[in-house]
Amino acid sequence: MKALFAVVAATIFVAGCSQSADTKSDDVQFGTDEAATIFPADRTLQRPEDGVILADNSVLLGDQRHGLVRVLPDGSFRPFGDFASAGYVYEPPAQNAAPNGVTMEPDGTHLLVADVFSGALYRVDILNEQTEKIYQHDYGVNTARRDSSGAIWFTQSTENAGANTEERLFEAVEYPTPDGALFRIAPHDENASPPAPELMVSGLNFANGFVIDEERGALYLSETVSDRVLGFMLDVDAGVLSERRIVAAVMTPDNMEMHGSGALWVASPASNQIVAVDVASGDVQPVFRPQNPHRDGVVEEWRRRGEAGEARLDLLGPDLIGSMPGLSTGMIIDEHSDVFYVTGLGDAIVKVGAE
Length: 355
Description:
Elements: H1 2-17, E1 36-39, E2 51-53, E3 59-63, E4 67-71, E5 77-79, E6 99-104, E7 110-115, E8 120-125, E9 131-136, E10 144-146, E11 152-156, H2 165-174, E12 180-185, E13 198-204, E14 207-213, E15 218-223, E16 228-235, E17 240-249, E18 256-258, E19 264-268, E20 273-277, E21 284-288, H3 295-308, H4 318-321, E22 328-333, E23 340-344, E24 349-352
Antiparallel strand pairs: 1-24, 2-3, 3-4, 4-5, 6-7, 7-8, 8-9, 10-11, 11-12, 12-13, 14-15, 15-16, 16-17, 18-19, 19-20, 20-21, 22-23, 23-24
Helix pairs in contact: 1-2
């Protein structure tokens, strides 16, 4: 079993690092007139799962080697933030790490970076690049966000830790494992140790990305292996969730963001696309669906095996990835233009649209 998950993990990454002769291009076939290009073109990132865009149009992305990298509009990049000084170590297989969720705090000058393998939660000052580890969870932390009250919310996808943390994470994707959870760390003095996190939601089949929508007083969360987006009413000041509901059925929902249109954009790695969810009606429409003649067959087989309780991680390979750099796990939306980026588990991201 351990060997199987190691092979699958390598396939997901390596398939994103190499292209067959008929797809060797910087362009992604999107099926519309909208431009979609591999970014950066030299494809030298490592697992850019999530990120944010800055005012100068550079992008900060999670990267396993460095913690974070800053990619400029011309595609050049450098490490960002002194993660080594904060205790970040990536030396597999002895010590694995995987910066996963990368989110901007309400102050616009700090980032939260969650490590889904080690359970570390880092805070980065984007002005001086000072980085500190502010919390160490017992298990991997998928995504973390700070609300306007100062509280930090984070998801635990599953109970993965230690030397086999990556294998354990994939096991929870292979078969439903209801040990995912959402936690909240109450507001506290930044110079003091954080209080113990409060368990807000438990029993989830792979808790993943989430969005705090203070305008609507809501929190939306991806329950990946249950193929659904959950919604809650949220009282930010009291730190209380209520009225849990299923917002929409989405295959393997991953990272999510609120779009300026009011729709909730959600990444779906098992169908390798981005969809928009109407949070009122539950209607789901694709907004980024690269052309891929194999996708529908893979998706149907993924669904069939899931219903039958059969192993299916081997489906997350080249036939599903196609001309993309890797599986699509998130998006970065530029609020000031029509550009957005599709992030994922490969060696580059995809830039969609023109500024």
